[in-house]
Amino acid sequence: MSLTRRSLLAAPALLLPRRSVAAERPNVLFVAADDLNHSLGCYGHPLVKSPNVDAVAAAGVRFDRSYCQFPLCGPSRTSLMTGRRPDSTRILANQIAVRDTMPDAVTLPQLFRNHGWHSVRVGKMYHMDVPASVGTNKWDDPPSWDVAISPPGLEQHTEGEGREVAKPRGWRWVSFAGDGKDQTDDRAASLAMEHISQNAAKPWFMGLGFVRPHLPTVAPDRFFNLYPMSRIEAVKNPPGDRDDIPKASEIAINTRANDMGMDELGRREAIRAYYASISYMDWQLGRVLGLLDKLKLRERTIIAFWGDHGWHLGEHHRWHKRSLFEESARAPLIISAPGRRGNGKGSKALVEFVDIYPTLAELAGLKGPAELEGQSLAPVLDNPSRPFKKAAFTQMYVPEQKITGRSVRVERFRYTRWEGPYPDEELYDHTADPKEYTNLARQTAASAKLREMRSVLDAGWRAARAT
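^ that's the sequence the OP posted. Answer follows.
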């Protein structure tokens, strides 16, 4: 049988040279939380209890200004897993597999697999419709894994107290008794622990994908009880906030604008359920971290924790993602690598999700593909106070109306350009207006800054690279 380039890239690691000493190669616990914004204790949230994510941050570097390349699950995850931007992956929507557009790609877990790591996926890593495709391998990437498991779960069919708070339907919460052994995240954590235990003596790459806090926001009663309704407040947007938001931006968010038809009680219930789901996900992570400690593996395990994009909880009367505002484009990223000098600190450097691939490759002593479009964050892991990129880029595409949005975040400003049937611009000053309520692109006094930011966007990501 002859080997094509594609079959060689997809082949198991036995076709490629391996190192002989497992101890030289760190394990990688690669943890994704679905639709997670910065509602975490380590990011300064006043209410949310996330002790296990906080512990990872305390042992690593917390990136305060990390940006996804596309605020939608499929395109964001494909970009992150291939280290290439959406314009290069050509995946601008959900329900598209990596090999549909990039048959010869070497993904991040595949790189580790090709060099002798035992590569395992438990839960959601690439796109998976939640809850419809939970328990299936739709849109997964077989060459990435030695073992791939999509545990099923009851999700929205869980018996308990709950209701649909949005009109039309779109935000259901359920609070139930017990620990939830029939939930996909509980099963994912258990299976991850099983595989870690079985492979404790050899290096592994574990892709652990939690679906919480993605809708439906389902969690045990005890996590809802952490957040009494008396402490939950709905977001208060200033009057006329939406008057200067471009029409293309409103179309992009689709049915998730106008507070999704929720009254104030519904909005507060939705926020409470989101927080409860985060704490439930955090508890599952804690189970896995506890096993690492029990097996004495923590000191040779790199932990990368990320959310695939941000999430609105009522800002600008928006919910969900699919937005180029800060709440949607910015997402949590924490990397805990044993022995790095910056561990225990936060970084305000501008970083992007395409930087995760080259970072983990370098930390493991691997050389990534030449096509990678990010930069290793290893220097920031040793010196979190150092500057990094000059700008971070996020984009959107709405195929039904052929609307393209491109946004760039620099130290102080965010600039967004909309192209298509409703061309327009946005400019926000994060020093004076961190919630992006005032679109300066409408003001002649900001014309010089507007021209400057247009130039930053036009110059692109190559001009913004760290030096």
